[in-house]
Design goal:
Length: 447
C-alpha cells in the first residue's frame, strides 16, 4: 500500500488501537474514530504515535474518504456509520483480517461459544513451554494486529469471536479449532441459529488441504451445521466417547489418546483442569500442539500443571464455610450450564445482565436439583423471574454487586457454594465481564 492510501479505524479499544499501530507501521494515512469515549490509556498511545483521532462522534467526511475501513468487532452492521460505509462501497475488514495480511507466522485460531479462552491459553502455554517463538492475541492478550506490528513470531495463538470472523476475506489459520456452538449473540444474527453457526464456521473458509480443522464430535450443533459448509482442511475430531478416532479421544480409564495419521501419538492421564468441558479444552490444545510437532513432554507438563483462569470457575474465598466462586466469564447459558453441572453442594446462584436472546430451558433440571436461591443482578430481571419462578424457593433482585454478595452471604449456610455465573453480558451495570468478576471478588473480600 502506498502512503497515500487512507484507512479509517472504527473503534478505539484494544483491537482498534492495535490496527492503528500496524496501519501506521505499514505506511497508511490513518484516521481513528470512536463513537463513544476512548479510554485514557488508548488516547495516550494515539498521542504518542501522533495519530489523528476523534471520540464521541463519527466524522463521515473523513471516514468516507477512506479506501479501507477496519471495524472493531463491537460495532453492529445496523449502526448508521456502517450503513453509510456499505452504501459507499468501501472495503470493510476486521482487525484479525488486517493483521493476517502482514503476518508471517503460522496461526492457530480458536473459536466457539464456550471454552475458547481456556483452549487458547492452554495452547499458548504448551508452545511457550516448548520454547518456540509464539504470540498470544485476539480476544485474549494483545490484539493480533499489535502483535504483528511489534515483531515477527513463528506462531500466533488467537482467540477469535464470531464478530471478528464476520469481516474476513482471506484469514487462513493453519489450525482452526471450533470448540462448540451453542446459542449466543443471537441478537446480532437476526435471532437465527444458522446465521450464528455460519459465522463460527467462517474460521475454515479460506483454509486449504495443508491446514487442519479440529472440532468437537460430541457437539450436536457443530455436527448439524458442518455439512452445510465446504471444509477443505483436514478435519480431526475430539470426543469423550471411547472410540479410537483420528484426533483425540477418551478411554474408560479417563486417559486422553491423541491419534494422527492413524498412528497413536501420545496419551495423557493427568489434567490440571478438571471437569468435562476442560477435558475437551485439553484435548483440543494437546492435539493442536502435536500437529505442530511439539514434543510430548512439553504437552504433558502444561496440561498437568496449568493454573485456572481468572473469571472462569475461579475459587475466590471460603467465608464461614461458604465457597465463593467467580464465573463472570459465563456470558451465555451454556457456560452457566457447565458451571452448575460442576456444583456438588447446594448453590446460591447470582445471575443476570444483558440478555442476548437466552433460552434458559437447558438449565431447568440443574437449577431444580442444585440451586437453593437465585439473586438477579441486572437492570431488567423480569425474564429470569419468569423463567425460574417455581423452580427454586427464592428469587430476589440486587441493585449492585455489593448487595448481591451481602444477600448471598446472609442467606447462605456452611457448605454452600455462592456462584456468580451470569449467563448474560455485563454491559448494563459493568464495563465488561472482567470488571464484573473483579467487583465480585472485591465484594467477597469486604465481607
Amino acid at each position: 500500500m502506498s502512503i497515500a492510501t487512507k484507512i479509517s479505524i472504527l473503534g478505539a479499544g484494544e483491537s482498534g488501537i492495535g490496527a492503528a499501530i500496524l496501519a501506521q507501521k505499514q505506511g497508511f494515512n490513518v484516521w481513528v474514530s470512536d463513537g463513544g469515549k476512548i479510554k485514557q490509556k488508548y488516547k495516550d498511545t494515539l498521542n504518542d504515535l501522533d495519530l489523528p483521532y476523534e471520540e464521541g462522534s463519527h466524522n463521515m467526511n473523513e471516514i468516507l474518504s477512506s479506501q479501507l475501513v477496519v471495524k472493531s468487532p463491537g460495532i453492529p452492521e445496523k449502526a448508521a456509520v456502517m450503513k453509510a460505509i456499505r452504501e459507499a462501497g468501501i472495503e470493510v475488514i476486521s482487525e484479525i483480517e488486517f493483521g493476517y495480511r502482514y503476518c508471517k507466522g503460522k496461526i492457530i485460531a480458536i473459536t466457539g461459544s464456550n471454552g475458547k479462552t481456556t483452549t487458547t491459553l492452554l495452547t499458548y502455554d504448551i508452545l511457550k513451554k516448548a520454547g518456540v517463538s509464539v504470540a498470544l492475541g485476539g480476544n485474549v492478550g494483545n490484539s493480533f494486529a499489535a502483535s504483528v506490528a511489534e515483531s515477527d513470531h513463528d506462531y500466533y495463538v488467537l482467540e477469535i469471536s464470531s464478530f471478528q470472523l464476520d469481516d474476513i476475506n482471506s484469514f487462513k489459520p493453519h489450525i482452526a479449532i471450533l470448540c462448540n456452538i451453542t446459542p449466543d449473540h443471537l441478537d446480532r444474527y437476526d435471532y437465527k441459529m444458522e446465521n450464528y453457526a455460519a459465522s463460527k464456521f467462517a474460521i475454515t473458509k479460506y483454509q486449504d488441504e495443508t491446514d487442519f480443522f479440529i472440532y468437537n464430535k460430541d457437539d450436536a450443533e457443530t455436527l448439524k451445521y458442518m455439512p452445510q459448509h465446504t471444509i477443505k482442511s483436514k478435519p480431526l475430531a475430539i470426543t469423550l466417547q471411547n472410540e479410537n478416532t483420528e484426533g483425540a479421544w477418551l478411554d474408560e480409564t479417563n486417559t486422553i489418546h491423541i491419534t494422527i495419521n492413524n498412528q497413536e501419538q501420545m496419551n495423557i492421564n493427568e489434567l490440571a483442569l478438571q471437569g468435562k468441558h476442560n477435558t475437551y479444552n485439553s484435548m483440543a490444545s494437546g492435539l493442536a500442539s502435536k500437529l505442530l510437532g511439539i514434543r510430548k513432554e512439553a504437552i504433558r507438563e502444561s496440561l498437568a500443571g496449568f493454573e485456572s483462569i481468572e473469571h472462569r470457575l475461579e475459587p475466590v474465598l471460603q467465608v464461614y464455610g461458604m465457597q465463593f466462586i467467580n464465573d463472570s466469564k459465563a456470558t451465555n447459558v451454556n457456560s452457566t450450564w457447565y458451571a452448575l453441572d460442576n456444583m456438588h453442594e447446594p448453590t446460591i446462584w447470582i445471575a443476570g445482565g444483558v440478555d442476548k436472546g437466552n433460552d434458559y430451558s437447558q438449565l431447568f433440571g440443574l437449577v431444580e436439583k442444585k440451586v437453593k436461591a437465585i439473586i438477579c443482578l441486572g437492570v431488567d430481571n423480569s425474564k429470569l423471574h419468569q423463567e425460574f419462578e417455581g423452580k427454586v424457593d427464592l428469587i430476589i433482585d440486587a441493585a449492585d454487586m455489593d448487595e448481591a454478595v451481602r444477600m448471598a452471604y446472609k442467606m447462605g449456610e456452611k457448605g454452600d457454594n455462592i456462584l456468580l455465573s451470569p449467563a448474560c453480558a455485563s454491559f448494563d451495570l459493568f464495563e465488561n465481564y472482567e470488571d464484573r468478576g473483579r467487583q465480585f471478588k472485591a465484594a467477597v473480600r469486604n465481607l
